[in-house]
Design brief:
The chain is an alpha/beta fold. The chain is built from 9 helices and 4 strands, in the order αβααβααβααβαα. It has a single domain, classed as Alpha-Beta Barrel (TIM Barrel). A 4-stranded parallel β-sheet has the order 1-2-3-4, covered by helices on one side. Homodimer.
Length: 191
Amino acid sequence: MDWKRRSFHWRNSSAEQLVDIGCQWVILGHSERRHVIGEDDEVFIGKKAAYALSQNLKVMACIGELLEEREAGKTFDVCFKQMKAFADNITDWTNVVIAYEPVWAIGTGKVASPEQAQEVHAAVRDWLKTNVSADVASTVRIIYGGSVNAANCAELAKKEDIDGFLVGGASLKGPDFATICNSVTSKKVTA
């Protein structure tokens, strides 16, 4: 999505165009946009989030680190920098969902352990409490996206701060996708 009114850019649609065709959500900050196209936090991603929200679109705000960043112990630094770009531009978090997608686990078959994912989700929630508000920290949904599948979703869904999933390839297999959806639904019912 572009952050300028009614603009048309190759690979982008304007927020107005998306609303006109009935879209309700946009995914912003996705790893492919960051690392393949080169979108950066300060110039594009935060502005896009603010503009999308101003046009009554809901925002899925993606954050996540590369493998070399994780191995260098920079996971939190990277994720918090990405969060800051969103927080600097978002005033109302009602229609925002945060998606933690460790880049090293997307489409690779690797997945963060439930403990690794929970650790980042909890740290993001703490960051929100300190840098945005306690209310936002307690109400915003933080979902996990990184090679989620029918085999690992139940253990991930058990973690306190994992509120759902951003599903990629597994969504193409109906029974697997249903298992993933049900893992989160049953978590909410039993909570």
